[in-house]
Design brief:
The complex is a heterodimer. Chain A contains 2 helices and 3 strands; from the N terminus they run αβββα. The termini of chain A are far apart. Chain B is α/β, with parallel strands linked by helices. In chain B, strands 1, 2, 3, 4, 5, 6, 7 and 8 form an 8-stranded mixed beta sheet that branches. Chain B is globular. Chain B starts with a strand and ends with a helix. Classes of the chains: A alpha+beta, B alpha/beta. Chains A and B meet through α1 of A and β4, β5 and α2 of B.
């Protein structure tokens, strides 16, 4: 898979939906989900600079994916915030 | 914003093709895509309408080889040229490291070129970027119309319109035929990688 193309489109996807959020009077949508026939994709925003993309098929459920990603997002948010803070200091 | 991965030894830069609608930004990317090998390029991603007008952006990533053990990868984006897609242009422009401004040589597009360049300067400023500091290369496209019955601007006229203050390197081109496409890409890549490396070196990280 072309991960870089996927990343560019993911960023664009968030860009477009943040405009939808604005139209609806929301600040942002923190997660997005697309359902396909075989593959599903779940996007979670981590802070202001990162997006986590999770691909999964029908061997698991959206609920379980959301539960697990939420935990990871929480941990990653702290890690990235630390890295960003350290970079600022240099 | 260039992305530097120290562990994998890779530098990624973002280069934007900007310019008025129907000027040939997407045609530039298509020509690059068609003329490069699979192993150095990624997919050409286009979000356009049925009429082939860019709706969001086009995207192509290219490997440019190595500099000081660092693999250089450039990500090429186009913006939608049509005036009313300004919000999208701003989004795509975010984090740009270098810009190719594709001007349309057709005389009827003269005002559109100037308008688009002014729009670019404003949008860059909004993102905290200065048009005189960021690497910029101008491309005067559609030179293949020279000698046809479609009136086109002379190089001197376009230079006066767009490049009098900017003083950026410029190339004449026919994106459709491929003339000047790689010359433009080579120059903007060189300037961008140099600029990014300078910033990194000044931080003493490379």
């Amino acid at each position: 898979m072309d991960v870089i193309a996927l990343s560019a489109l993911t960023a664009a996807n968030f860009g477009a939906t943040s405009e939808i959020a604005r139209l609806l009077g929301e600040d942002e949508f923190a997660l997005l989900f697309h359902k396909g026939k075989n593959e599903n994709v779940h996007f979670s925003k981590i802070g202001s600079e990162f997006i986590m993309v999770t691909l999964f098929d029908d061997r698991t459920t959206l609920g379980l994916v959301r539960l697990r990603t939420e935990k990871v997002v929480h941990e990653l948010r702290e890690t990235f915030a630390e890295i960003m803070e350290r970079n600022k200091g240099e | 914003m260039a992305f530097i991965n120290f562990s994998s030894g890779e530098i990624q830069c973002k280069i934007i093709y900007y310019g008025p609608g129907l000027g040939g930004k997407t045609t530039n990317l298509r020509y690059i895509y068609d003329s490069t090998n699979d192993h150095i390029r990624g997919q050409l991603v286009s979000i356009d309408t049925k009429g082939d007008r860019t709706l969001f952006f086009d995207f192509l990533s290219l490997d440019l080889g190595k500099i000081r053990d660092y693999k250089i990868r450039v990500q090429l984006y186009t913006v939608p040229g049509q005036v009313h897609y300004d919000a999208t242009r701003k989004l795509v422009l975010r984090g740009a490291d270098g810009i190719v401004f594709v001007a349309d040589s057709m005389r009827v597009q003269r005002e559109k070129n100037i308008e688009s360049l002014e729009n670019m300067a404003i949008n860059l400023k909004e993102k905290g970027l200065d048009i005189t500091k960021i690497p910029v290369v101008l491309q005067y496209n559609k030179r293949d119309l020279e000698g046809s019955n479609i009136p086109i601007l002379t190089i001197e006229e376009i230079q006066r319109d767009l490049n009098a203050h900017l003083n950026a390197p410029f190339f004449t081109a026919s994106a459709l035929k491929g003339d000047g496409v790689f010359e433009t890409l080579r120059e903007i890549s060189k300037l961008t990688v140099r600029d990014v490396s300078r910033k990194v070196l000044s931080k003493g990280k490379m």
